[in-house]
Amino acid sequence: MNAGPGAPHRGLITGSIMLATIMQALDTTIANVALPHMQGSLSATQDQISWVLTSYIIAAAIMTPPTGYLALRFGRRRVFAWAVGGFTVVSMLCGIATSLPEMVIYRLLQGVFGASLVPLSQAVLLDTFPRERHGQAMAMWGMGVMLGPILGPTLGGYLTEFYSWRWVFYINVPFGALALFGILAFVPETAIDRTRRFDVFGFCMLSLAVGCFQFMLDRGEIKDWFASTEIIVEAGLAALGLYMFVVHSLTAERPFLDPHLFVDRNFATGLLFIFLVGIVLLATLTLLPPFLQNLAGYPVITTGLVLAPRGIGTVIAMTIVGRLIGRVDPRLLILFGLSCTAFSLWEMTGFTAAVDRSTILVTGMTQGFGLGFIFVPLSTITFATLPPHLRTEAASLFSLVRNVGSSVGISVVTVVLSQSTQINHANLAEQVNPFNPMFRAPWLPDGWSLTEPSGLATIDAAISAQASTIAYLNDFRLMMWVTLAAIPMLLLLRRPRTNTVTGNVKSVPAAVD
Predict the structure, then answer these.
(1) What is the pLDDT of residue 302?
(2) Which residues contact 503 (CB under 8 A, 6 or more apart)?
(3) Is the separation of the CB atoms in 37 and 86 below 8 Å?
(4) Which among 1, 387, 403, 505 is least buried, having the fewest CB atoms inside 10 angstroms?
(5) E-strand spans in 400-486?
(6) What are 505's strand-pairing partners?
(7) Which residues does 95 contact at the CB level (< 8 Å), separation at least 6?
(8) Which of these, 382, 387, 388, 351, lies nearest to 367 by C-alpha position?
(9) What is the pLDDT of residue 89?
């Protein structure tokens, strides 16, 4: 692929790639808000309807790692076109599904086709733009990846409220058609290596590890974690699959993942970083909607609107950082982004059920701004010293680790929220007794009573609300510490050597500060 300054149709390639990226990124969260409506329409139980999300997540996780091999074996444009076309068709099938089995099968296929869209889009943009403009390319790509999960709940809530949950899937059709046309018309094909053999055993072991781990994370809360035989079996299979994959990769002549990927220090460190970014990105998005709706009393539409400024902050940050990336040390940009994100989470630890909209808007925009300053320079510096022929494989692994981080983050905050709510409720309830002077007149609020059942129910409702609020704040504090824990890892990243006059990044990978 021609990556020089004269590469033709660069703008049209970028537009087509961004459509595919946004389409896939939106689907990671857009269906969540529609689940209650889908549950009634498809006559499913609460446990059954969760498979609409689980099937997509598992399929996408398993099919992300083979992206590099498929692009090398069949050509990147051909694989990209099939992925976009398949994703678009299956999205339409999801919209017309009339039963739960149909929906689960179509969502599984949607995950299969959608798995390669993000890593392929990243690899295409890196090859389309010259090295000195990789920062700007990653800024554009990052907007699609970051805005999708942020805007998904807002758009999904609007479509479900005013149209139908089916439009959550129909909206992919026009975007997918445009993206497919652009890819077929303007994206050049890459060289095909028909001698590359597919490591079936390595793929099966990695799929076993990733698939069982995702199952465990997704169903752990429902099954009470390790009190369930299912979760123990899934954890054991995940550990066994990972062990066999690592041993096989170290001993096989041509393993599933190229070992040279992990020799690059920037890439290895970047994987750890994106894992932590994935935790913070979707974990906070998972916490805020129920907090605002169940405790603060915000309607669904209002909740979506007050969360939208996170996306605005991200767009502003990525616009700025795309211009700074060639002039400022990327590690300093990441440090600034981590600081903004940690500060916003610290502000969120002061939320109450009476939190006003302006506070939510400011903290959301600050957090989105910080994440934008993290994502672009991190993507740039992670791939800066990798050889071009490893980019597609590296991008698929980068995407996989980010998604696994998001799954881990969602599971952790859900567990902490549940357990913390129970502990807080027990601690607060201990104070409710006739010997506490605060529960005597005239301090007792109207409707509260230690002798009447209705009065006790009112007190219990108030205690439950306070216990839940404290639990949410504990989760926000946990996310803040996760963000701060990433800062020392900046010392492991190497800044690519730059030309002091033009700011262009050179291809010398051994630059040490």
Answers:
(1) 75
(2) 132, 326, 327
(3) no
(4) 387
(5) none
(6) 498
(7) 166, 167, 168, 169, 170
(8) 351
(9) 92
Beta bridge partners of 212: none
pLDDT at residue 217 tops 90 = no
- Give exposure, 400-434, as e/b (b: 16+ Cβ within 10 Å): bbbbbbbbbbbbbbbebbeebbeebbeebeeebee
What distances in angstroms separate CA 6 from CA 183, 305, 505, one per listed residue?
19, 42, 18
On the question of pLDDT at 390 being above 70, the answer is yes
CA-closest candidate to residue 408, choices 283, 245, 223: 283
> In angstroms, how far is the first alpha carbon of the chain from the final one?
32
pLDDT above 80 (res 304)? no
Tell whether the model's pLDDT for residue 495 goes beyond 80: no
Q: What is the dihedral of CA 375, 381, 387, 389, to 10 degrees?
A: 10
Least confident of 63-72, 86-95, 188-197: 188-197
Q: Compute how many other C-beta atoms are within 10 angstroms of the C-beta atom of residue 226.
A: 11
501 is written with which tokens?
Answer: 């006059």
CA gap 259, 254 in Å, rounded:
9
Sign of CA dihedral 345, 349, 350, 356: positive
Q: How far is CA 203 from the centre of its chain?
A: 23
pTM for this one?
0.74
